[in-house]
Request: fold
Amino acid sequence: MIAILDYGINNLRSLQNALDRIDVKWETTTEPDHETKLIIPGVGAFGAAMERLRPLKDSLQQMAKSGVPIMGICLGQQLLFSRSEEFGSHEGLDLIAGTVSYIPKVAGLKIPHIGWNKLEILREDIIVSLVPNDSYAYFVHSLVVKPEDSSCVVATTEYGVEFASIVQAGHVWGCQFHPEKSGDIGLEILRNFANC
Amino acid sequence: MVKGTQFLNLKDSGDPVELGKKYSEEGADELVFLDISASQEVRPPVVELAEKVAKEVFIPFTVGGGMNSAEAVRMALLAGADKVSLNTAALSQPGLISFCAERFGSQCIVIAIDARKRAEGGWDVFTHGGRRATGIDAVQWAREATERGAGEILLTSMDGDGTRTGYDLDLTRAISQAVDVPVIASGGAGRPSDLCDAVRYGLADAVLVAGILHEGHYTIQELKVAMEQDGFPMRMVSPGLSTLVRELG
Reply:
């Protein structure tokens, strides 16, 4: 069973469909129960999301400490970090130490970064089990994460600059892309999370 | 990066959900489902289609046809579509583009432009599934639509559509140079080299392919291999992956 955190600003349908496809049971929840694996999805702005999530911050930190697996997707991954510079400066959930900042502007590259791009897998991790290096995943984002501890980075992607596209710290994972929209590779990553 | 996309004519191409699933498995990068019957219903039929597609397809997809209100757009996105394509309604009420872009984000608002060559030069925009001339200049309209917040242009050459003689490179280049959002070229693909030309000379960000796939002239894999050999990096699917997982699991 996987709980999908519903904090009111998300369309959860695609993720639910993807979990159905790989035969993983899910429920949506507005309050994590400290036992069930949790996915924090997300599309939208960091600040607005944190408004909704702030009351859950202590509880999510507790969960992470006790080793219940948590996965953040896209904005959900950014929310795992300490701080974001999106539209000002906002405190995050701080489950992984580090910051979230805009993709640096590089001539010829459009922002947001939308489309398929490669994952360069830097190290082994259960989340990328059976995922070949240089697999493509589907991205829609304007900001990227930067963990303080670079050993948290499982995979990077290049878009003008190299950024962390999969991170892991303890039992907390984050994907900058949308696994629910990344074809078989994405489903594999969700399956890996379900099995971890 | 170049995307291979499919244009599904809901009426003529069999079960769109099945086709979408098949193309997704064969390596399409995105899918486009357009209902050109231009229904006037509050809940366009394509919303129901989006719901079904979202259960079977795990790559991004766009739906369009009958999207005549913000509510219709919202329903399509909630149903699981990643992007919604506006055409006729965007021309009759351009404010809808900005309203939807602000509310749902530019990244999911696609403006579909059906254009036909004018005798005196330039291209005219057509609406109502290509049945009605507007007298509006296509390049001008593309510029206005993106200024209003459109995140992508789906550009169909009506002269090229179905001819298999290649995309309209002049039209594609004119629009690509006028806007700074991705332009998807559509209409006229006959051979793999047409796809390469649309990107290289038409400056398209992506190419849409319909007829030559539906009729089995080429597979997506063949088109992608041809483009890769011509120097365009492509996302290749590894069909063995899920099989492998099942065996190990």
Observations:
- Chain A has a mean pLDDT of 94.
- The domain at 2-195 of chain A is CATH 3.40.50.880 (Rossmann fold).
- Chain A has one domain: 2-195.
